Task: structure prediction
Amino acid sequence: MQQDVLSPPDLPATAEKLRRSLHCVSILMRLAVGTLFLCAAIVKTPLGISGIVAYYASLLDHSLLPAILVRTHATLILFFEYGLAIWLFSGWRLRLAWKAGGVLLVSLAVGMIFAGKYDVASANYIYVLLCAVGLLTSEFDRWQVGR
Result:
């Protein structure tokens, strides 16, 4: 049985192909998670801040989460979602953007667990996984502001 082994001249070409592929994965993750945040914010915008706070309060009314925490999160979520969408699209300080996005998604998942919406919480944890992929591939992303 014969094994295919990369010869030394093939290694730089293979490494370059891998870098290009990881760049594409990073861009795809930025588009996927950025549009997730953008669309989530657009859907909430007609409600206004008071409508979002009222929705969160009704959803988490009988949960163990303190009301002040729920109101604060509900008041800020729209700004965070728009901000993270723009941040990911821009590519500025991309590693930090991925970390912030992951933390926000974890906070949303925890809220959904307390609301008893386990299907939504599990989807949020899948989005956290996408943030982790984005974080891992961000060093190969050539479309970053300030790089």
